[in-house]
Amino acid sequence: MVTEPVRILVVGGGYVGMYTALRLQRKLKPELKRGEVEIVVISPDPYMTYQPFLPEAAAGSISPRHVVVPLRRVLDHCRVVVGEVQSIDHAKRTASFTTLATAEEGTGALDISYDELVLAPGSISRTLPVPGLADYGIGFKTVEEAIGLRNHVIEQMDIASSTRDPAVREAALTFVFVGGGYAGVEALGELEDMARYAARYYHNVKAEDMKWILVEASGRILPEVGEEMGKYTVSQLRKRNIDVRLETRLDTCEDRVAVLSDGARFRTRTVVWTAGVKPHPLLAATDLPRNERGRLRCTAELSVDGAPHAWGAGDAAAVPDVTAGEPGKECAPNAQHAVRQAKVLGDNIAASLRKQPLQEYAHKYVGSVASLGLHKGVAHVYGRKLKGYPAWFMHRVYHLSRVPTLNRKSRVLAEWTLAGLFKREIVSLGSLEHPRAEFELAAGGERPKES
């Protein structure tokens, strides 16, 4: 008799999805060779993005292609499908998904059955109904957004350098970042550093002409590094003439005017939104249990509570923190936990298939590091607090050790070495966002409007 292989469906190609599939490849190597197990990974992108490197990619310290890891190269024993899962019926063990080809074929969504489900779609930006945000806001969660923002910042400097209108110049040189977490502070720090350096090559734009504003609704920034390091970060940013506004919200950014809750108004062509994330909307299209925040309700073994053969981790999962002294506390949805959870998750799935006991995920948070620009940073690791160059160096060492594959580690290290020997690149390649514009114009079309 011919038996069908056990199919493990991994939804998502981010931290949890890629690392779990990678772990399963290793743990189930004999079963994969014998054809007893099949691993299918469905991801909207054919790569995993190492998000801690996005600020450096935006600043030009790392090439965009080295911030991502190609799934097909790493997961060579998995079947990788570039597509989006639309819904999951776990009672029937089926998932409905679309691919790039389904739209062309007009066949609609496809169904795939599975035996074990790893649901790790990650998160999306958490936005608020701020007037004008959808029209003018810029996100900072993908490599495309990071590179687009870099091109946009340099383009604004070009606009300011060539305009004779003071209002246009003021708006071009005003940059508003909303959100004082890792993404907002690191992106602001790296881009301000890059723009300050680029200003030396403009005959009529000086670093002091630019206005950088950080807006945070709470009373502190970078809560992960502790209150003392958060206050230090605020003082360092303000020394760089960055306007840090705590306990302040963005009320509107209509007509390219940012209006804050404290009454301040700024003409600006740049509003970067980094005010948190929320669970992926796919979770609402499943029959799996969720908590009040919309995340999967999981056990300490990373199985979905009350749903056999379903597993979850990372941003999409509410995982109990067994190392915490207080009951009911959950692991923070960050990369440090996601990578470690994926390892335990892969081991537990393999153990479940082999009828072996499962292990609990237990990892005590060791601290955080953050970059504030070239040679500047803060860190709070194992109770030790570091500032300036030592913290920045630790930030680079830590993330170099965590970025997957020797290929990527070597390329990133080589780029850092070359960046230390030569000058920064300050070229904007904004035309990449409209690669056919020149040909369309030559063929009688219209040039795309500026964003």
From TrEMBL:
InterPro entries given for it? FAD/NAD-bd_sf, FAD/NAD-binding_dom, NDH-2
Q: Does the keyword Oxidoreductase apply?
A: yes
Q: Which residues form a coiled coil?
A: none
Classification via SUPFAM superfamilies: FAD/NAD(P)-binding domain
List keywords of the entry alphabetically. Answer: FAD, Flavoprotein, NAD, Oxidoreductase
Residue ranges of domain FAD/NAD(P)-binding in the record: 7-342
Source organism, top-level taxon: Bacteria
User: Could you tell me one molecular function GO term of this UniProt entry?
Assistant: NADH dehydrogenase activity
Pfam families reported for this sequence = Pyr_redox_2 (PF07992)
* Protein family: Belongs to the NADH dehydrogenase family.
Output this protein's name.
Answer: Putative NADH dehydrogenase-like protein YumB
Name the species this protein comes from.
Answer: Streptomyces aurantiacus JA 4570
